[in-house]
Amino acid sequence: MQQILIVEDDADLREALEDTLALEGWSYISAGNGQEALLLLKKQPVSLIVSDVSMPVMDGHQLLDSVREHWPGIPMVLMTAFGSINQAVEAMRRGAADYLVKPFEPDVLVKVLRPLLQSRPAAGVESDGPVVDDPASRELLQLAARVAKSDASVMIGGESGTGKEVLARYIHMQSQRADKPFVAINCAAIPESLLEATLFGYEKGAFTGANASTPGKFEQADGGTLLLDEVTEMPLELQSKLLRVLQEQEVERLGSRKTLKLDVRVLATSNRNLRQAVTDGVFREDLYYRLNVFPLAWPPLRERLGDILPLARALLVKHAQRMGVARAPEIHPDAAKMLKQHSWPGNVRELENVMQRALILAGGDPITPRSLVIEQVAVPVTGVPKPELSGGGGEDLREDLREQEYRMILDALRLEGGKKKETAERLGISPRTLRYKLARMREEGFLQEG
Ligand SMILES: Nc1ncnc2c1ncn2[C@@H]1O[C@H](COP(=O)(O)OP(=O)(O)OP(=O)(O)O)[C@@H](O)[C@H]1O
What InterPro entries does this protein map onto (predicted)? Predict the structure, then answer.
């Protein structure tokens, strides 16, 4: 039985949340703050956490950090205060699976939690699958639907934020395994020391801290699909073990001699040029052939112009629902033009951020260029000339948001002693996204070269 952990200091709200979950027939346990939640997590299995952000003793962000460190497989949804976009943005950056803006209707809560309970976060705008309209994307989706019917391994390429995970989920939903689990693991986000145990599971006492026998992602995905996200970031040693598991379709938990037969279809994604990764010696060639049976790749968003507006609209609807806004606003033709002209280096993820902010800035009115905070903006740093701002206004807010983002990145870098992988992990973004952001910060003179 899956158990949800509710963390909320306001007793009335906690009760309301409990009622909503009970009505769905979901089982739950509750805590009044982050510290109580940690005690419960140590004692009981939990499938999903829904937590308030502002709480005494230990707040939601601190709890999120601790959960990511000790229970990286448990998705966490944060409930943020109305009007506080920064809290929501920060929650996602720190690795929250999703967020809810208070106050929200019970059905919004259910809608956000259900896909997380079924397997992993619904990667698409809704579980209906990827939003596409451009001929190239339609073709890709048709191909993916055909490949889905086989059990072949699929390797999904594409720049960061293009929708690789969304496509993986679509393949699962189109396959014979659709009613079985879809389990995803981000090989870049989990500390190397935990990756092996997370993938293959472990028996109690297998290593310090292994307090209870735990199935790995492979076992969890039995009968269904396992997505190895950013597979090229996996250490070489683990790649060999992965290859063996794939070839033999069986796994042994760490600390156990018992072999478990598995029936798992494997999908993988990478932002890197795979051939290059093989040539560079960071990715095993035999594993490359094993996973790359059927390669698919998203073109960058700037090369599929036909997707931009349908995606922008769908993303507005998604976030309007989350924020309890009854109707998503229209996009003014001038704003639409601006959206189509931007080069979207961060792809759909960047578009999603822009639409999310636009929704708040527009305050219910149609989306105009004034509400589009598109990143071509530099943070004012002493001694560095300030480039022109794009679009038609909201400069102060743009600068604030950018500056805040850069500060968070710099703080995280400092805390992690400059280590990129750990910094990305702390921020809850992929190493590739971090590399891209650092490059931008460098370009804009916010960081020194090197
Ligand atoms: N075609 C699409 N339809 C709907 N939503 C999409 C689509 N493509 C991407 N998204 C949304 O954009 C965001 C990024 O997508 P996703 O996580 O799949 O990208 P990715 O390529 O796996 O990124 P990364 O390389 O950083 O892991 C998600 O919030 C996802 O819901």
Answer: AAA+_ATPase, AAA_lid_NorR, CheY-like_superfamily, Homeodomain-like_sf, HTH_Fis, P-loop_NTPase, Sig_transdc_resp-reg_receiver, Sigma_54_int
